[in-house]
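[09:14] KT: can someone run the structure on this one? pasting the chain below
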Amino acid sequence: MDATTTLYQQEIERVIQDEINPMVGRHLGKVEYVKFEDGVIYVRLLGTCKGCPLSELTLKEGIEMILKERINGIDRVEAVE
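[09:31] RB: done, structure tokens below
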């Protein structure tokens, strides 16, 4: 892993921990960072977010929007199992 990827990873994890998890935690959900690759952040949705009918909306209009606003160079966010 190169230094740039490590810096991205640290910043992504900080935003998830400090901003996103408190937001989804209000509904007993949680987001876990998986990896960053070629401008794409991969996350795992946990708790009530996993399997929720609104999880795609939360992912694109909440999680992705926040990460793209806070971190330059993010193209999209994808959920993995």
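[09:33] KT: thanks! The helical segments are 3-25, 55-70.
[09:34] RB: yep, looked fine to me
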